[in-house]
Amino acid sequence: MRFLSILIVAVILLGCKKKEPPKPPESVQLVFPEKNSECTTGEDINATTSQVEFRWGASSNTETYELIVTNLENGNKQDVTVTTTSAKLPIAKGTPYSWVVISKNSAVLQTASSPSWNFYNSGFETTYAPFPAEIVEPKMGASAFKDINNDVVLRWSGADVDDDIIGFELFLSTETPPETSISTPGPDATDTKVSVVANTVYYWRVITKDSEGNTSDSGIFEFRAL
Which InterPro entries match (predicted)? Predict the structure, then answer.
């Protein structure tokens, strides 16, 4: 009788055990095209377009993957959702792109984003313009605290398939587009200090230059100095 009572209690306890909530998906590791590289494996579609296969690793708790590919020259985006760890898209030759993969699970609202990688889709060019500088901080719409000298540090990251960056030019203004050149750091520079006024919105951008005379524009970013 005692054994039966213990068994009944155990069954009740097991029945009352709460079901664990579904776990959110994890981000993937991108594989190909490689970061800051030239992709030469595209399948020709016509004189201006080739089909490129994007590959990434599987991530936990993920049902589907959304691949987003952005043309860095005009901002146009292409996307496709798949259940596999690869997808093909037709993209323009001789053009810089960025790509990112979003992990999704229908059981939860959360998603997970991979890092964003840049690459050039191979074309007929013998030299490539630098990739647009990646803005590290302040990010778009962020608040930046000035130091005791009323300075804020602007940080960016540059890359070039040809590895021939010769320098950068930074523009900063309280008006957009920013047209006041404030600094022309060398090829190894990744940050610079600028004087700011508290409670003021600033706009900034970075132009990257290479030895062939090619340039690229980061686009305009804004931040509020505090």
Answer: Ig-like_fold
Same domain, 62 and 117: yes
Domain CATH number, residue 112: 2.60.40.10
Query: Tens digits of per-residue pLDDT, 139-178?
Result: 999 999 999 999 999 999 999 999 999 999 999 999 999 9
Please check whether residue 131 is in contact with residue 96, taking contact to mean a CB–CB distance below 8 angstroms. Answer: yes
Q: What is the pTM of this model?
A: 0.81
> What's phi and psi for 169, nearest 5 deg?
-135, 125
Domains held by the chain: number: 2
Q: Who contacts 164 (Cβ-Cβ below 8 Å, separation ≥6)?
A: 210, 211, 212
Q: Can you name the residues that pair with 143 across neighbouring β-strands? A: 224
Residue type, 56: W
Q: Is 6 helix (H, G, I), strand (E, B) or coil?
A: helix
**By residue range, what is the domain housing residue 95?**
30-121
H-state helical runs in 26-99: none
Q: Tens of pLDDT along 35-44?
A: 999 999 999 9
CA–CA dist 63, 201 (Å, integer): 41
CB 25 within 8 A of CB 62: yes
